[in-house]
Amino acid sequence: MDTLNRLQSLSCLTQLEAAEDLGSSQLSVKQQDALNVSHAMLPNGKRIHLLKTMLTSACERDCHYCGFRAGRDFRRATLKPDEMAQAFMAIHRAGVVDGMFLSSGMTGGGVKTQDHLLATAEILRRKHAFRGYLHLKLMPGVQKAQVEQAMKFADRVSLNLEGPNTLRLERLAPHKAFMEELLQPLKWMEEIRRTQNPRLGWNGRWPSMSTQFVVGAVGESDLELMSTTEYLHQKLRLGRAYFMAFNPLKGTPFENLPPASPRRELHLYQASFLIRDYGFSIEELPFSPDGSLPEKVDPKTAWAEENLHESPVEINKAAPQELVRIPGIGPKGAQAILKARKMGGISTVEALRKIGVDPTRPARFILLNGRQPDFQLALW
């Protein structure tokens, strides 16, 4: 295969990776000339076309869920670092893509594979003077010096934990070590961000960090996933946790398992945002006795039905951290409410609409000057 054909082949294999995609992994991906180009939103809110690809689809690991695991029968492809950099720059200059998410199958160990990823990033940044967005994967077993080097080239660095703990990872990927190979590099990354000058990072700042979990393949509970996610957000300043609803693939040990629910994936994302952005703790999330989030209602609404139904929040007096806990009101809505209060307050659902807050969801859980709005009014 020529370089472009190999790039196309490698790009199509990254569908299982969530990387700044708009929405969850269930949403559509834009295909341009058979390249996996996703509509992506960066951590700063900017939208770009992001090429998702990998250096090689060969892999020595045999993760039970993975489409390019060792021993699976399909045609492999590989690009050398200079080939990948040159091919990417060609489609970047053609206006097809703005940035790149770069991963790899693992051959010759994590350290050697990481060297190839770092070489690609260095060629892009130094030889081709590429200043656009670069998301670089860390390989299991990466060395601390390699983590630091990746942080000097990339806007985001990630390493997939896959499972929420050692027990679940052993069933997903029996030859990966949860603490030593996966969690430790994320700890190193936070240590570097905490102790070293951010001017050493790309564009004078350290990159954000993300990880991904496989959901629904090995019996892990939502509580397990959220407990690990809370730790990562609070202790390691994780920028984003991604959740991939398991889908069985032929030629893998998990090919006969049922697929996981996309709704479960969505609710895990919503719960992770409650922890990251809304001040919720793991103890406040509405888990059932078996550790599951509600299936038919989003976690925030489930929490509100239990905690706000009998004690609705007074919109004209509530603190910002109370406002964002009301279903249908996020950080922007809370700020709009605070601004309106300075102008005389909010007395009707129509006033909420005028400031950009749809009253449909919050109506059951709020008071307007001591009175609860008519639920039906919020539907029109």
In short:
The protein is of the alpha/beta class and 380 residues long.
Distance between the termini: 59 Å
* DSSP summary, beta strand count: 10
Helix content: 25-40%
Number of helices: 12
Order of helices and strands: HEEEHEHEHEHHEHEHHEHHHE
Mean pLDDT: 92
- Largest beta-sheet details: 8 strands, mixed
- The CATH class label of the largest domain is Alpha Beta
Structural class: alpha/beta
Q: Give the neighbour order of strands across the main sheet.
A: 1-2-3-4-5-6-7-8
The CATH level-2 architecture of the largest domain is identified as: Alpha-Beta Barrel
Question: How would you describe the overall organization of this protein?
Answer:
- The protein has 380 residues and is of the alpha/beta class.
- It is 36% helix and 13% strand.
- The protein has helices spanning 3-12, 81-93, 110-127, 144-153, 166-172, 178-195, 222-236, 262-277, 299-307, 320-323, 331-342, 349-354, and strands at residues 30-32, 35-41, 47-54, 99-103, 134-137, 156-158, 208-215, 240-245, 313-314, 366-367.
- It has an eight-stranded mixed β-sheet with strand order 1-2-3-4-5-6-7-8. The protein has a two-stranded parallel sheet with strand order 9-10.
- Helix 2 (81-93) crosses helix 3, helix 3 packs parallel to helix 4 and helix 4 packs across helix 6.
- It is globular, with a radius of gyration of 23 Å.
What is the secondary structure topology, with strand pairs?
Layout: H1 3-12, E1 30-32, E2 35-41, E3 47-54, H2 81-93, E4 99-103, H3 110-127, E5 134-137, H4 144-153, E6 156-158, H5 166-172, H6 178-195, E7 208-215, H7 222-236, E8 240-245, H8 262-277, H9 299-307, E9 313-314, H10 320-323, H11 331-342, H12 349-354, E10 366-367
Parallel strand pairs: 3-4, 4-5, 5-6, 6-7, 7-8, 9-10
Antiparallel strand pairs: 1-2, 2-3
Helix pairs in contact: 2-3, 3-4, 4-6, 7-8
